[in-house]
Design goal:
This is DUF4878 domain-containing protein. The chain is of the alpha+beta class. The chain contains five helices and four strands, in the order H-H-H-H-H-E-E-E-E. The chain folds into two domains: 67 residues; 104 residues, Nuclear Transport Factor 2, Chain: A (Roll).
């Protein structure tokens, strides 16, 4: 009789644990969808003024192309070349943001995110190799992050000058001894900068056993 009772208790406990885990995963997925929506909205807010600027610059190009009294052909060609270069830069940035919006529907996590230190080390590694393809996945998927964290994790969509600056600031980065961690959050002090002489705290958050950047 006791064996049967223990077996029943074990089965009930197992069912409860499975049900509880399924509920945790369901909520996690729902919050990720909210985070995707917030991220796309933020990206669209960046894209909109860029599109307006592009339209304005194209109108300016058309104006330059018109005949102007007293302007030489050489001056006109110089103005046209400069304006076309500006438009090309804006279009390039626009395409990167549009690509980032499309990628926002994807969600990936990696083994190195099993610890907060692993997530931080990935930033340093990305800066060393200048391979920023995984950086977007380090951003808190629930959308609870500040603008600095967003800029760091969205580095792949930014101009090459910004990427070079990122490499310069973080390629020699290292984790300091001041680490504060609990079950769901972590604060890690890092040294960064060309000479690793700047100290700053990076805040991370745990989402279903993986660690993400939330504040910097």
């Amino acid at each position: 009789m006791k064996k049967n009772l223990f077996a029943i208790i074990a089965i009930v406990t197992l069912c409860y644990c499975n049900s509880n885990q399924a509920e945790i995963e369901r909520i996690h997925k729902e919050k990720i969808e909210v985070g995707k929506s917030l991220k796309i909205t933020k990206l669209n807010n960046i894209l909109k003024p860029l599109e307006e600027n592009l339209s304005s610059q194209k109108q300016k190009l058309a104006k330059i192309n018109e005949w102007q009294l007293g302007r030489t052909q050489t001056e006109k060609e110089t103005q046209l070349a400069e304006q076309k270069q500006l438009i090309s830069q804006i279009e390039f940035m626009k395409s990167r943001i549009e690509n980032e919006i499309a990628l926002s529907n994807m969600f990936q996590s990696f083994e190195f995110q099993n610890t907060p230190e692993g997530t931080i080390e990935q930033i340093f590694q990305a800066a060393k190799t200048e391979d920023y393809s995984k950086m977007r996945y380090l951003l808190d998927p629930y959308g609870e992050y500040d603008n600095d964290a967003f800029s760091i994790c969205m580095i792949e969509m930014l101009p090459s000058e910004s990427q070079k600056e990122m490499a310069e600031q973080f390629k020699n980065g290292r984790i300091m001894n001041n680490i504060s961690t609990n079950d769901s959050t972590a604060i890690i002090e890092i040294a960064f900068g060309p000479s690793s002489n700047k100290l700053e705290q990076m805040h991370l958050v745990k989402r279903l056993n993986k660690w993400y950047i939330s504040n910097f």
